């Protein structure tokens, strides 16, 4: 073992440093189906009114409000997509169906339930109000109105709105291409039986899921051995196409820890150790052409917590999200959260609802190897170093992963 030469960086300083060095990827034009879940790179202005014409909200009769209480002659029909092209004169009405154009001359629609039809005549009730039972042009959206702003994530409603306004394609930020690999001579593929001293590579599957959930394209590159040349050639090859490299393992100070020197030789290491528990050996580097490299620690919880704290916000920034951090909510601690002497700790908790409140309970042993501390966790509670910790009953802002 040798001592690390990397300074221990404050966790918040390291997180800010990562985001500072993370660009937003360029935009591209994609079809609506490829735009699902992407982030809009343009403000979207309505080219037309919605609705574009006075559209009936009900099935009934288009009439003039001044004809209230009279028996009117039916002169035609305005169905959805098949407008009545004539004029509704005094003393006349047209049948109208939901979505049909309210014809010229008519100023109101009477519901079919409210009239009496007798052959080719229809008797309408007294006291009709002009402007009833139809949507005026521009009632939903005005031509020229800004309906979506850059930075908005495109979900069902946003894409439906874009389609309604005639946009078949949208400008969205490019998705990052991420190359993922595990490092370590002790690792075997899942499904193979480890011999004594070997362990199954679980980080790659955990990180693959975390990357997919973060909305990026992932290339999973398997396990790199603890051998400098083999690791280097895998990484160099991956970086031909990837924007981001994510590795796990090989960042602590043992002699087999090869990731930091490799990243030094390929670019600039900005963070090599963090005052963070779990995740002290977290490593961040920038490489040529604005590419980013994240060397995550090998211990399973450390790799996922550092992913949460550093990688996920960076991946969201690359994709153009206005909001890169998880939401926080006030939670009442249901346990005593002890502080660590030197490092900010992210403790994993479950939440339960108690009246108006959320109560946080520890997931048990917070060992960096114990994935059960993270499986089913609803939130992360930050405990600052060198303090008394946080007493049970205290309300703190927790980072929400999932609500109970
Ligand atoms: P390292 O950072 O390479 O020293 O790894 C620290 C510890 O994390 C190792 O001793 C393993 O127990 C564990 N570990 C490393 N890589 C993986 C992986 N891909 N999957 C599961 N555990 C791992
Ligand atoms: Mg290792």
Helical content class:
10-25%
| Beginning-to-end CA distance, first to last residue | 44 Å
Poorly predicted runs are none
How does the overall form come out from the CA principal axes? elongated
Mean pLDDT: 97
Query: Biggest sheet, strands in spatial order?
Result: 8-5-7-6-10-9
Structural class: alpha/beta
Bound molecules: adenosine monophosphate, magnesium ion
Radius of gyration: 31 Å
Instruction: Classify the beta-strand content into a percent band.
Output: 25-35%
The count of helical stretches stands at: 6
Number of strands: 27
Biggest sheet details = 6 strands, mixed
Itemize the secondary structure elements and their pairings.
Elements (H helix, E strand, L loop, with lengths): L7 E3 H10 L6 E5 L12 E2 L9 E2 L3 E4 L7 E8 L13 E5 L11 E4 L4 E3 L2 E3 L10 E2 L10 E3 L7 H9 L4 E5 L3 E7 L3 E2 L10 E2 L2 H11 L3 E8 L3 H11 L5 E5 L10 H8 E5 L1 E5 L5 E5 L4 E5 L3 H19 L9 E6 L10 E11 L2 E6 L16 E5 L11 E6 L4
Parallel strand pairs: 1-20, 6-7, 14-17, 14-18, 15-16, 18-22, 20-24, 23-25
Antiparallel strand pairs: 2-13, 3-12, 4-11, 5-7, 5-8, 6-10, 9-10, 19-21, 21-22, 23-27, 24-25, 24-26, 26-27
Helix pairs in contact: 1-6, 3-6
The protein binds adenosine monophosphate and magnesium ion.
Magnesium ion binds next to loops.
């Amino acid at each position: 073992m040798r001592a690390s030469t990397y300074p221990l960086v404050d966790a918040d300083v390291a997180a800010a440093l990562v985001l500072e060095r993370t660009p937003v990827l360029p935009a591209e034009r994609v079809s609506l189906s490829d735009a699902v879940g992407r982030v809009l790179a343009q403000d979207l202005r309505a080219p037309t009114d919605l609705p574009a014409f006075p559209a009936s909200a009900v099935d009934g009769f288009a009439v003039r409000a001044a004809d209230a209480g009279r028996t009117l002659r039916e002169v035609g029909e305005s169905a959805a997509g098949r407008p009545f092209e004539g004029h509704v004169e005094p003393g006349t009405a047209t049948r109208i169906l939901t979505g049909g154009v309210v014809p010229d001359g008519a100023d109101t629609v009477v519901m079919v339930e409210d009239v009496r039809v007798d052959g080719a005549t229809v008797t309408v009730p007294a006291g009709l109000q002009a402007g009833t039972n139809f949507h005026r042009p521009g009632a939903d959206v005005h031509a020229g109105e800004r309906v979506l702003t850059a930075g908005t994530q495109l979900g069902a409603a946003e894409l439906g709105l874009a389609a309604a306004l005639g946009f078949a394609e949208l400008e969205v930020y490019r998705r990052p291409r991420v190359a993922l690999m595990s490092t370590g001579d002790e690792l075997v593929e899942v499904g193979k039986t480890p011999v004594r001293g070997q362990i199954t590579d679980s980080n790659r599957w955990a990180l693959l899921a975390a990357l997919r959930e973060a909305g990026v394209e992932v290339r999973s590159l398997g396990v790199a051995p603890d051998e400098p040349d083999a690791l280097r050639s895998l990484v160099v090859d991956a970086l031909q196409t990837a924007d981001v490299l994510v590795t796990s393992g090989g960042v602590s100070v043992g002699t087999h820890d090869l990731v930091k020197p490799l990243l030094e030789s390929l670019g600039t290491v900005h963070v090599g150790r963090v005052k963070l528990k779990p995740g002290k050996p977290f490593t961040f580097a920038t490489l040529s052409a604005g590419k980013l490299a994240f060397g995550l620690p090998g211990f399973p919880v450390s790799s996922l917590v550092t992913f949460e704290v550093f990688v996920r916000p960076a991946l969201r920034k690359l994709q153009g999200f206005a909001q890169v951090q998880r939401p926080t909510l006030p939670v009442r601690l249901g346990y005593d959260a002890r502080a660590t002497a030197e490092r900010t700790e992210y403790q994993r908790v479950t939440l339960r609802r108690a009246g108006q409140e959320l109560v946080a309970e520890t997931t048990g042993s917070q060992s960096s190897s114990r994935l059960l501390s993270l499986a089913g966790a609803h939130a992360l509670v930050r405990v600052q170093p060198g303090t008394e910790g946080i007493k049970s009953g205290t309300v703190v802002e927790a980072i929400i992963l999932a609500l109970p």
